[in-house]
Write a structure and sequence with these properties.
With about 140 residues, the chain is α+β, with helices and mostly antiparallel strands. The chain contains four helices and nine strands, in the order E-H-E-E-E-E-H-E-E-E-H-H-E. Strands 1, 2, 3, 4, 5, 6, 7, 8 and 9 form a nine-stranded antiparallel β-sheet that branches.
Length: about 140
């Protein structure tokens, strides 16, 4: 096993599409999968209101974990750390949502609810600027 260089870890974070968001909810670890875009040193995503958003608002420190697994003996894994920030400026929200929808053209859970209800839910758009990243590889 070897440690990934920072540029290797950032490249893997950029290449992956689904990560696991780790945060703290009522003193307990809470981990959920998210779709995201990594750009300009930040992970961008969106969510309906709920448990993860409430947890992130209460304790903004979070991490994103991604991996690439070929088999039991060939894999790479990265954990990136940062602080949750909601994006509230309408033009910034539109820009990020556009990038997310470009990367994920099929309906995501947020858009699925919109299609079912025919009304736009209050989607939260957020970023986690990465201030620390680590990674390991077994190859």
């Amino acid at each position: 096993m070897r440690a990934l260089q920072e540029d290797e870890a950032r490249a893997l974070l950029s290449a992956c599409r689904i990560g696991r968001l780790g945060c703290v909810d009522n003193g307990e670890p809470y981990v959920v999968p998210i779709s995201y875009v990594f750009e300009d040193g930040s992970v961008y995503s969106h969510s309906l209101p709920g448990r993860k958003i409430e947890a992130l608002r209460a304790h903004p420190r979070a991490c994103i974990q991604v991996d690439e697994i070929e088999n039991d003996f060939e894999w790479r894994s990265v954990i990136a750390y940062g602080n949750f920030e909601e994006i509230r400026v309408p033009s910034d929200r539109r820009s990020i949502l556009s990038k997310l929808l470009d990367r994920f053209p099929l309906l995501t859970p947020v858009e699925s609810v919109m299609a079912q209800d025919a009304a736009a839910p209050d989607s939260i758009v957020f970023r986690i600027p990465i201030d620390r990243i680590t990674g390991v590889s077994e190859c």
